[in-house]
């Protein structure tokens, strides 16, 4: 889990647009962020395995 203070800080409007920090909308993790799904890789994998993300299936070959 990310620090609450850093999550609150990231939610504020930055003074300059380049200071925007992308964070996972579920857990607040700043690393491993995927823009297309607006979440980190860990939350993405968990939700995809549970079948909660439409159009995403676990690959097998």
Automatic annotation (TrEMBL):
Entry GO MF terms: rRNA binding; structural constituent of ribosome; zinc ion binding
Keywords per UniProt: Metal-binding, Ribonucleoprotein, Ribosomal protein, RNA-binding, rRNA-binding, Zinc
Co-factor remark: Binds 1 zinc ion per subunit.
UniProt record, GO biological process: translation
Regions that span the bilayer: none
Matching SUPFAM superfamilies: Glucocorticoid receptor-like (DNA-binding domain)
This protein's record includes keyword Cytoplasm: no
Ligand binding (Zn(2+)): 24, 27, 40, 43
Keyword rRNA-binding: yes
SUBUNIT field: Part of the 30S ribosomal subunit. Contacts proteins S3 and S10.
Function: Binds 16S rRNA, required for the assembly of 30S particles and may also be responsible for determining the conformation of the 16S rRNA at the A site.
Protein name: Small ribosomal subunit protein uS14
Lineage: Bacteria, Pseudomonadati, Spirochaetota, Spirochaetia, Spirochaetales
């Amino acid at each position: 889990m990310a620090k609450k203070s850093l999550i609150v800080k990231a939610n504020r409007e930055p003074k300059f647009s380049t200071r925007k920090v992308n964070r996972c909308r579920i857990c607040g993790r700043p690393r491993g962020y995927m823009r297309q799904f607006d979440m980190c890789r860990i939350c993405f994998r968990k939700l995809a395995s549970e079948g909660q993300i439409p159009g995403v299936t676990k690959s097998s070959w």
